[in-house]
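ugh ok fine here u go
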Amino acid sequence: MQLQRGEKRGLADLGIASTCTVKVDFGLDGVDIAAFGLNKDGKIAHDGYVVLFSNTRTPEGAVVLSLSSDSAVFQLQLDSLPAEIDRIVFTATHDSRPISESSPLIVRIDGNKATFNVAEHLTNEKAVMMIETYRHSSGWRVGAIASGFAGGLASLIQHLGGQVSDQATSSGKTSSPANAAPPQPSTPGPSPTIAAPPVSLSKVTLQKSNPTVSLKKTGETFGEIILNLNWNQRQKRGFFGGGGAVDLDLGVLFELRDGFKGCIQALGRNFGSFQEQPWIELSGDDRTGAVADGETIRVNGRHFDKIKRLGVFALIYDGAPNWQQTDGIVRMNIPGQPEIEVRMDEGQNNRRLCGVALIDNVNGGLQMQRHMKYYPSQKEFADAIGIILRWTAGTKD
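structure:
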């Protein structure tokens, strides 16, 4: 069913259960999709119920977000939400361009049981409330909104009762909702655990003109540091000689303060360990780009003081390189910090490896620097950044 702007319908009337999916397809690079859990006053209930790139699930897992290069999928278990969460508003924002330039911008609920074409209702808004799901005496309902703010994210946050604040760090501005007390669960059991650092609603793109960002701990540790590689999953034909799938790998060179060095990568099945030395782990090997989350490396921030340097790289495992067409992006997420991203929008097509970024421990703080240089292999990148290793040939099988 195609929803109309302003229309409100019961989920049950549409054949949709309280356990369902909300998928947002978008066509503008840089669009950020989020879900805000609001109380009965229409205000942000708590940081933990703002679900977006830097906080992909609510405390009890009632809302879980998966992101790809052109879509966002929310897995919902609405009846598991605390009673204080009265509604969830799904939003789209862009740092500099009107959301109307995103075509398509379509919301699909539980497949195509209900759809809503958002973009056709917009003009100059940089932040838009697309749809909402909300409690009603008859059960959960959905409303089609498609209205927003030319002022962008800051205006949206203020409308929802949040606070927009500046942090005096080289990362620039960050925005976070008011740090209210966490809502209690509506069913018996322990209260949800809310991480102390607030959810960050901003991102920093490292560019030639702004290549470095420094972060300080917001608590005793950095927590779980997540490095993610995502690339174009829509146009696989002709990228690397023929119609084969893209196989773009994420890897990390590391040097610990005690002198231990190595490489975490799918090649040679060197997946590492999150709980033991080197406290760095590759979650898996996506050989096709079909996995929505791309490839992810987790760094145990509780042991960051033992880490001296990390060199983050992307490697084309198969085919002839064509970096410009991959639309590759490496993102770093840390609880309570702005998302940091480096875009692989340039390249040398005679080199298989892109040295994306360097992460250094500087007096206990984390410094990430855009590197963006290309090398024939891991060895040349490692030599260039001072992590000298002995290398042997390896395969994925």
